[in-house]
Amino acid sequence: MKKLHLLSVLLLTLGGGLITLFTQAIAAEVGSGAEIINNNCARCHNSRPVQEFSTQEWSVILPHMREKAHLTGQETETVMDFFKTLSGGPVKNVADVATMPVMDGGALMKKFGCQGCHSFNGKGGALGPALDNVVAQRGGEFVMKKLTDPQFNNPSSAMPKMPLTSAQINVLVGFLGKK
Amino acid sequence: MHTNIVKNHSIKLISCMSAYLISAASLAQPYDAGEQGRFVIAGYGDVKYEESDLLDSSAFSARFVPIFLFSLNDKMHVEAETEISLNEAGETEVELEYADIHYFLTDTTTVTVGKFLLPFGQFSANFHPSWINRTPWTPGIYGSHGSAQAMTPLLPILSDVGIAVQQTFFFTSQQKIFLDLYVTNGARAEAHNDGDEIIEDHAEDEEVVDEHTEAFPEVEFAATSGDNNKNKAFGGRIAYAFLPAIEIGASYYTAKYDEEERLSITAQGMDINVIGSRYLIRGEYILTETDGLEEADEHAEETINAFKRNGWYLQGVLQAGQIWPQLGGTELVVEYAKTNKFAKAKRWVAGLNYWLDPRSVIKFSYEETDIEEGDGDQRLAVQYSYGF
Q1: pTM of the entire predicted model
Q2: In chain A, N or C terminus with fewer CB closer than 10 Å?
Q3: Tens of pLDDT, residues B284-336
Q4: Integer Cα distance of A52 and A55 in angstroms
Q5: Which of A70, A75, A80 sits opposite B178 (nearest CB)?
Q6: Considering Cα of B1, then B7, then B9, then B11, what sign does the dihedral take?
Q7: Residue A119, number of CB atoms within 10 A of its CB
Q8: What is the predicted ipTM?
Q9: Buried b (16+ CB within 10 A) or exposed e, A47-70
Q10: Quick one: closest CA in B to A155, which residue?
Q11: Name one GO molecular function term (chain A) (predicted).
Q12: If you ran DSSP here, which 8-state letter would residue A90 be given?
């Protein structure tokens, strides 16, 4: 009986190890920060505005949410990096913003993870509305206002205020308007 | 015989957890959160106005629920939630909802020790904070302190003291399996004020007696730093998540609740959470089986009867503002809950919510409860809930 018990513990140890190896091996395919937020946070609650907390505060809150939402460590780190891009680090520095390249619309969408929450060209999240015809349907001025102040038309909108320059907003609106 | 089986199960479960932790620890990888903070207070609170026909009263109430978060290092994280509220006598009540430490053993494995919310279903662990819950009430099959609802719940919001292991099986960023296992002090027989255990004779207050006058056993789930026997509760939840649209889970809980470890309570649950861009659907089914001693005369042996109850709820939320932008953060909520056997009841809830921002909501809700053998209730509530 004891031998059987030891054998089962040994098998479980090996099994657990193999499962952990397997899950760690494929864990490299984590999505973007915005996609992880879209996929996981909205399961329970509205996404909180990233500006609500500092990056240091997020670094304490995210481990709490990691356990609640069953996030992996890599996913947690990716979300943290996304939050830093949105609200911390050099993007809040006026000098750095001024020297940031304008980029093209596609590159800006990728940098700020728009498709984590919005679909575009058939790809992306469902947390926000599709962007394919957003300029045609709502007008360029609306999209410009939305990017400048995401809560201007809906106080419960979870869309974060991206640290975009006026030039970058114009590029994005132009890019979305070409569709 | 049954006691031995449960003991063996507990030993096996602890062995399994230990074996798994040994294997996982050998593969541990550090988690680097970068610029690290140390302490944050988050949480939620609410203010509610409620009218109840059954209670024949209307009242304002308020709660403040701070969550204290400490990041000790990149592998250890401490969390504690306290609920501070006023009772009907005007006294301030403080309850420890949970107080635990997470150890992030690997990228996908987390060990939690302390007092924690048991991962049984989704409402207990995830949906109960008032800024997340879409109505001002628990869903009818769940009870909680301060909840004087007309329906007799199947389970309270479960929290207990012990150890838990969480494993996320990560297949793609959109497909995961969540596994949670735990061992805790467990439930115990409800006691009189003088400390005697009560197995029967309590039916008239909260539990309804069936037609054969058998009394439903009363079991106390409130967590304590002690136990009335050596048996430990164990259970867990396994869920498949196809993100971001759907999560389906199955839960299990079992414990011996009397001093002699003859009587057990077992609960099984199924839960579903469907997340659309314009709607939410949340539902749970629970089946409980509770052993009770049948009163015997002087010459007969006591016999153990199993009392089975089941119930479910289904909640639908239509995010109207996503369909008609001029409605902003307006949501429409409908919920139906039903319990069977020993306390048959059903409850409808209809609600209108308005989100002031992503973390604060005003809920206007009406509920109507029909109890088959007892007094029903109609309630109206306006609740302002906020997360912070």
Answers
A1: 0.81
A2: N
A3: 999 999 998 877 666 677 788 899 999 999 999 999 988 888 898 899 999 99
A4: 10
A5: A70
A6: negative
A7: 18
A8: 0.84
A9: bbbbebbebbbbbbbbbbbbbbbb
A10: B357
A11: heme binding
A12: G
Q: Write the CB contacts of B25 (distance below 8 Å, at least 6 apart in sequence).
A: B105, B106
**Contact (Cβ atoms closer than 8 angstroms) between residue B285 and residue B309:** no
* Interface with B, mutate which of A24, A36, A43 (most B CBs under 10 A): A43
Q: Which residues of A touch B167 (CB under 8 A)?
A: 19
CB spacing of A156 vs B321 below 8 angstroms: yes
Task: At B63, list the tokens.
Answer: 């709660």
Residue B23 three-state SS = helix
Contact in structure between B271 and B248 (CB atoms under 8 Å): yes
CATH fold for domain A94-177? Cytochrome Bc1 Complex; Chain D, domain 2 (1.10.760)
Residue B244, preceding peptide bond in cis (omega within 30° of 0): yes
Residues 311-370 of B with CB under 8 A from A: 321-322, 325, 328-329, 355-359, 361
Question: Rounded to an integer, what distance in angstroms lies between the CA atom of residue B382 and that of residue B388?
Answer: 20
List pLDDT tens digits, range A95-128. 444 555 667 888 888 888 888 888 899 888 777 8
In one-letter notation, the amino acid at residue B129 is: P
Give the pLDDT band (50/70/90) at residue B8.
low
Contact between residue A158 and residue A146 where contact means Cβ atoms under 8 Å apart:
no
Q: How far is CA B169 from the centre of its chain?
A: 24
